[in-house]
Amino acid sequence: MDDWRGLKENKISAGRFQKLKLKLLKGEKYTGREKEIIKSIREKFTINENTLLRKIIKPEDAEKYVSGEYNAVIGYISRVEDYNDVGNFKDIFETFRLNYKGTPYHSTDKSYWKIEFNTISDDLERINLDKTYGIEFGGGNVDENPCTRNGFTGSENGKVIPEWNLKKDGVEYDDNALITKIERGKIVEQYRYIKNEKTWRKVKWN
Fold first, then answer.
1. Is residue 76 within 8 Å of 154, Cβ to Cβ?
2. DSSP-assigned states of every residue in 132-165
3. Is 10 exposed, middle or buried (0-12, 13-18, 19+ CB in 10 A)?
4. pLDDT exceeding 90 applies to what percent of the chain?
5. Is 134 left (phi over 0), alpha (psi -120 to 50) or beta?
6. Are 139 and 150 in contact (CB under 8 A)?
7. How far is it, in rounded angstroms, from Cα 22 to Cα 155?
8. Based on the number of CB atoms within 10 Å of its own CB, is 21 exposed (0-12), middle (13-18) or buried (19 or more)?
9. What phi, psi does 90 have (nearest 5°)?
């Protein structure tokens, strides 16, 4: 977590915050003050036109992006700067709570796909917390566990990852977006988006 000053401002320890962000997952309700703390800390994490974003995607969705069937990113995204994801997949699985309904992933998997991108400037205003926060925080998100609905992933491994929910609107990606397959911690396949050609081009790896 890159902004621990939010903890100091709210007079809360890192350990206490870890428990607090998981309350909904455990069926516990937030007090008014706890909601204030969550929102105060969460809203220090922002996205601008220079922020590199990431989404872990299904293998079949990787094919749909590359083929041109998909031309925008929907669902939950996070900032690349908040987590170095080339590593142990079990940790990635837990950090991003990939055990959602319909997931193609298991904690024992050895490979996964991701898309990393900068949005086009016109789409930035569509990335907001109104669709990320649940009704508990004044938003409209009604997704069930493992979604926390508080703007953080439900990780229970000590990681603090802010996330944004794009819902069905989606955002487009700028030039040089990457779709990458990671296997056992190494890049084994990758595609780069060429904006003026509106196509994905495979990157050659030795």
1. no
2. TSBGGGTS-B---TT--SSSB----SS---BEEE
3. middle
4. 79
5. beta
6. no
7. 8
8. buried
9. -60, -40
Identify the CA nearest to 178 among candidates 195, 165, 161, 166. 195
CA-to-CA distance for 181 and 62, rounded, in angstroms? 9
CA-to-CA separations, 137 to 26, 39, 68, 114, 126, in angstroms, rounded: 17, 8, 36, 29, 18
- Residue type at 193 in one-letter notation: Y
Tokens of 64: 């749909």
**Contact criterion met (CB below 8 Å) for 72 and 170:** yes
**Secondary structure class of 122 (helix, strand, coil):** helix
Q: Could you tell me if 132 and 153 are in contact, meaning their C-beta atoms sit under 8 angstroms apart? A: no
Amino acid at 3: D
Residue-level pLDDT at 87: 65
Q: Which of 182, 188, 205 is nearest to 87 (CA)?
A: 182
What's 134's DSSP letter? B
Residue in the structure block whose two tokens are 């802010």: 162
Q: Please check whether residue 161 is in contact with residue 83, taking contact to mean a CB–CB distance below 8 angstroms.
A: yes
Q: Write down how long the chain is.
A: 206
Query: Would the CA dihedral through 165, 171, 174, 180 be positive or negative?
Result: positive
- Tell me what pLDDT residue 2 has: 47
pTM: 0.92
How far is the C-alpha of 203 from the C-alpha of 72, rounded, in Å? 21
Beta strands 178-183 and 186-194, pairing class: antiparallel
